[in-house]
Structure formats: structure tokens, C-alpha cells
Design goal:
By secondary structure, the chain is an alpha/beta fold. The chain has a single domain, classed as Ribonuclease H-like superfamily/Ribonuclease H (Nucleotidyltransferase, domain 5, 2-Layer Sandwich). Helices cover 41% and strands 19% of the residues. Strands 3-2-1-4-5 form a five-stranded mixed beta sheet, sandwiched between helices. A hairpin with a 2-residue loop joins strand 2 and strand 3. Helix 5 runs parallel beside helix 7.
Length: 172
């Protein structure tokens, strides 16, 4: 993929692990990358009114109280579609993120034809020696350290970190 082409790196935090079990996106972060640099960002919490499973809360720490007064899905997703435009999308474990994004859009009668790329798959191919291919592990290997101001398992920070991993993997 060309370094000058625009790509959008996406991360979501959810109420659960599966849309089949009623899981919803409650936070999304996206960063646009052009010419090897982040050029724009968009992120928000989303109040879906859905309960948050304890296991999901333990991962991201997002509570129902944090979502009160935040935008509804119908206010958020059209903005993100505009932000995505026709760009290829990238995520760490894109199957998870793309499944949730497509589900949320379908609930609103919207679609997303953009192709998705996966940094987990790319890391497994390029860095088979790692003990696992979690975002934190791959980032520490490629970048040395996680930026001190990064809050892992929050959407915009994970999207920023995934963007750095994506750019580093392009150079492997």
C-alpha cells in the first residue's frame, strides 16, 4: 500500500465481545494517516443505552455513567462515514472492529464498502518470533515503549498506537 495514500486506522470499545450477544460500540477512535503521519483524528464515546458486560468493563473501564449525555449512535456514525470517506481502514484485529462497525451502521441502514487491513495478521507474518501479537506486545517490539500518555484499551489512544504500529510494519 502506498505511503502517500490516505488510510484510516480505527479502534472500537464495546459493551461485549460479540454483536450476536447484543454487543454495541460505545467508543470509537479513528486517525487518518497520509505520507506516514497522522493528519486528522476523530473520537467519541457513544451512548447506546446498552448494558456493559463486566468483562468488557474490566478491559476498557468505560462505565454507564461515563456515557450519560454522550452522542447517540445516529449522531456519531454519519460523522465517521464522512471521516472514513473512501479510505482503506486498518485495525488491530480488524475482524473484530469491522464486524462491530458494520453492525452499528446496519442498525442505521448504512453500509461501509471500504476494504479493511489487519495489523495482527501483518504482525504475525512479519514478526513470527513474538510471544503473542497483542497490540501492546507488537508496539513495544516495534516502537520500544508505549507513549507515556497512551491509555491502552481506549479507542482513540489505541487507534493512535495502531497507526504507529501500522507505519512501522510497512517498513519491516
Amino acid at each position: 500500500m502506498s505511503g502517500s495514500a490516505r488510510q484510516v486506522i480505527v479502534d472500537v470499545e464495546t459493551t461485549g465481545m460479540s454483536t450476536n450477544n447484543g454487543g454495541r460500540v460505545i467508543e470509537i477512535g479513528a486517525v487518518a494517516v497520509e505520507d506516514g503521519a497522522i493528519v486528522a483524528e476523530l473520537g467519541t464515546l457513544i451512548d447506546t443505552g446498552s448494558p456493559i458486560h463486566y468483562g468488557a468493563f474490566r478491559v476498557h473501564g468505560i462505565s454507564r455513567e461515563m456515557l450519560r449525555g454522550k452522542p447517540a449512535p445516529s449522531d456519531v456514525w454519519p460523522q465517521f462515514l464522512d471521516f472514513f470517506a473512501e479510505s482503506p481502514l486498518v485495525a488491530h484485529n480488524s475482524q473484530f472492529d469491522s464486524g462491530f462497525v458494520r453492525h452499528e451502521l446496519a442498525l442505521l441502514g448504512l453500509t461501509l464498502p471500504n476494504p479493511w487491513h489487519c495489523t495482527v495478521r501483518l504482525a504475525r507474518r512479519r514478526l513470527p518470533q513474538l510471544p503473542n501479537h497483542k497490540l501492546e506486545t507488537v508496539a513495544r517490539h516495534l516502537l520500544g515503549n508505549i507513549p507515556h500518555d497512551c491509555c491502552l484499551h481506549r479507542a482513540l489512544d489505541d487507534a493512535r498506537l495502531t497507526a504507529q504500529v501500522w507505519l512501522a510494519l510497512q517498513g519491516c
